[in-house]
Amino acid sequence: MGAALKAKSVYKGRSPAIYCWFVTLIVWLTGVAMPLNMLKVSILSPVLMQSFSIGTDAMSWVMAMFYIIAAILAVPGAVIVGKIGYRYTFVLSLLFAVIGGFIGTIATDLTVFILSRVVEGVGFGLVSTAAVPAISGWFSPEKRGVPLGIWAMNVTMAFLVGPSFFSRMFEATGDYHFIWGVCLAFNAILLLVVLIFYRDAPFSFDSDGERGRSAGEASASSHFANLKRVVKNPAVWILGLVFLCEEIPFLGMSNFLTTYATQETDISMTAMSAIISVMAVAGCCVNPLAGKLSDVLGTKKKLMVLSCIGGTAYAWMVFQTTTVEGFVPVIALNAIAGGVIPVMIWSSIPKVVKRPEDIASATAIVLFFQQLAALFGSRILGMVVEHFGSFSIAGQYVMAPIFALGLVVVFAGWKKLP
Q1: What is the model's pTM?
Q2: Mapped to the 3 state alphabet, what secondary structure does 239-258 carry?
Q3: In 3-state terms, what secondary structure has residue 300?
Q4: Where are the beta strands (DSSP E) in 366-412?
Q5: Residue 294 and residue 337: Cα distance in Å, rounded?
Q6: Cβ count near 87 (within 10 Å)
């Protein structure tokens, strides 16, 4: 009852049907802030390497720290989310982001700077665990595709905005500390927004779309029991494996597109950056459309099949394309590969668990697979390219089969998927 009264006080005079989209926007912006915190190091790595007098190997570990912390926190994060609720999880995440950003701003040696990345990584790890169940709580099962499709745009939007924004800011100021300050301010503003405006849903939906007890009341049972129940659910592991097979090649290849263009083609870095931006825009468009289509068709797994096929074709073609014009079909395949699967995965989670309070634990397990993919995708591709000296071989004979393996997993678990 307390949660319901607090939520009603926020959207008093407004329809929950309107407020639920406001909640989605708040959660989405929080989800955009976290990968922006991650990207600022990737984009400004040459500057940071010079500032701290370190090489590429040390810098790669600084970058990987985000993924390592997020992977470690994924499953324990479900217990944390269950105990403190979604709202306070977002508050805690943004608080870690603010503190980590402040430490990074004042850091003068590498050890302190790495500490700042660890602190920021905690915030990054917790947000994703809470986001899916927080958004799902406000929508009935048959209407979750679009809002979760919007949520799935968070990383894509960060990749669309971050590289250009951070590069231009550094060109204008010549000081990376200014960029850290801007991200710090953005995180602090979002922290205030969450504290003032965000509330967890004062109700929950059963599998038939009927409202039931509030999310807070429904999750009052043992959170470890919830996690134990979810671990025994084979559908959750199938979703995680599908996501792993999609994200390893997709993220790995995304990180090496500019390197491939400058080393093996006549496409300039500027042109390749523009192509990457177009890919990001296309992905942002496909995310909510895929969610809407899945709601209309009433299926997730059929669209997973489409995405896995598109991803396999993308991996086969991308490192054989040598002209700007040739990237037109590659952009389309990239959108199908990266724009559909994440939406299908996140929107499938509430459907494969039996209880609303299990959504956070299921999200945490799937998130663990995603973070493993983010951590190892680039390393696998880099090792293959270094060994064979060819991006084409890596794409055709390593990354494409991994995408195709995801298709095998979908068919193997067909009866368990929605």
Answers
A1: 0.76
A2: HHHHHHHHHHHHHHHHCCHH
A3: coil
A4: none
A5: 16
A6: 21
